């Protein structure tokens, strides 16, 4: 079963947080249209869409990835590092509890954003979870996540993240586990022995749709070519209005597998 959580953008999207880049005006109507296209791309790739109830007072709620870490039958509800985003988690918890997931929570003083969590299941079935320690996620949050995931056999590895908002703003993984990133934004590429540098910052962000297909932004055409030369099929979507808010393709959804 391939299901994916998404959350419709609200009316205050343009007021979303911006930390590492200059603020530029967001066209909310265009952003709505881009979100519909993003969801349509997932649907046409065979994913069942599950909408989390909108959180209209939270400008950044569309970045649903930050509110949860899902592994197996467990949903660890995050405690976002930015106070403005803390109310977003209730809707995500309700949606996942409704789908039958076991619920655990990151508690104070821990903070953790789902965008800091990169998971990979190796060919031998071992799960590695790299977690960015930086602006939004603290050591207590990582310790709690590790304790929640340990019974599921996952190994949690802390990765200092200072140059971008979240670990997954810097690196993501291709279907074969190769970790890709735009080197100037990666604190220590040597963390991953098979690190693959990509020529564009948005090229660092992929959503794995199946063993040979990735979803990525149209704003990284040279990286797209690089991936296609490696034999990957690429589905590209324009998410310019979300990129102005330091969002990327990964943060607009949470894939639920199995
Ligand atoms: N996982 C992600 O990359 N999330 C992007 C969140 C962007 C939002 N404007 C924020 O600063 O929280």
Summarize the structure in words.
- With 258 residues, this protein is α/β, with parallel strands linked by helices.
- The protein has a single domain (3-256), classed as L-arginine/glycine Amidinotransferase, Chain A, CATH 3.75.10.10.
- Helix content is 21%, strand content 26%.
- The chain has six helices and 15 strands.
- The protein has helices at 28-44, 89-98, 139-149, 167-170, 221-229, 240-243, and strands at residues 2-6, 48-51, 68-71, 74-77, 102-105, 117-121, 127-134, 154-161, 171-173, 179-181, 196-197, 207-210, 213-217, 233-237, 254-257.
- The strands form five sheets. A three-stranded mixed beta sheet has the order 2-1-15, with helices on one face. Strands 3-4-5 form a three-stranded mixed beta sheet, sandwiched between helices.
- Helix 1 links the parallel strand 1 (2-6) and strand 2 (48-51).
- The termini are close together.
- The mean pLDDT is 96.
- Bound molecules: citrulline.
- Citrulline is lined by residues 16-17, 19, 60, 63, 65-66, 82, 85, 115, 165-166, 168-169, 245-248, 251.
Tell me the strand order in the biggest sheet. Answer: 2-1-15
- Name the overall outline: globular
Largest sheet: 3 strands, mixed
CA gyration radius, whole angstroms: 17 Å
Strand content: 25-35%
**Could you tell me how far the N terminus lies from the C terminus, measured between alpha carbons in angstroms?**
5 Å
State the CATH architecture. 5-stranded Propeller
The level 1 CATH classification is Alpha Beta
Give the averaged pLDDT, no decimals: 96
Organism: Nocardioides agri
GO biological process, one term: arginine metabolic process
Protein name: N(G),N(G)-dimethylarginine dimethylaminohydrolase
Keywords: Hydrolase
């Amino acid at each position: 079963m391939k299901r994916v959580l998404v959350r419709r953008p609200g009316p205050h999207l343009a007021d979303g947080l911006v930390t590492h880049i200059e603020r530029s005006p967001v066209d909310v109507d265009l952003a709505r249209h881009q979100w519909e296209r993003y969801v349509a791309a997932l649907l046409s790739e065979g994913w069942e869409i599950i909408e989390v109830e909108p959180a209209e007072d939270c400008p950044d709620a569309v970045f649903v990835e930050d509110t949860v870490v899902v592994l197996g039958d467990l949903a660890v509800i995050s405690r976002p590092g930015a106070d403005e985003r803390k109310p977003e988690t209730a809707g995500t918890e309700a949606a996942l509890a409704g789908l039958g997931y076991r619920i655990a929570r990151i508690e104070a003083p821990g903070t953790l954003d789902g965008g800091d969590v990169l998971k990979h299941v190796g060919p031998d079935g071992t799960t590695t979870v790299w977690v960015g320690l930086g602006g939004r996620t603290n050591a207590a949050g990582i310790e709690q996540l590790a304790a929640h995931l340990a019974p599921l056999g996952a190994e949690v590895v802390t990765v200092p993240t200072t140059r971008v908002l979240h670990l997954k703003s810097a690196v993501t993984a291709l279907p074969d586990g190769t970790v890709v990133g735009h080197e100037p934004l990666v604190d220590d590429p040597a963390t991953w022995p098979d690190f693959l540098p990509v020529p564009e910052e948005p090229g660092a962000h992929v959503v794995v749709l199946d063993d040979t297909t990735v979803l990525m932004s149209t704003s990284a055409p040279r990286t797209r070519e690089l991936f296609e030369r490696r034999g990957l099929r690429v589905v590209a979507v324009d998410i310019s209005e979300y990129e102005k808010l330091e969002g990327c393709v990964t943060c607009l959804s949470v894939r639920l597998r199995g």
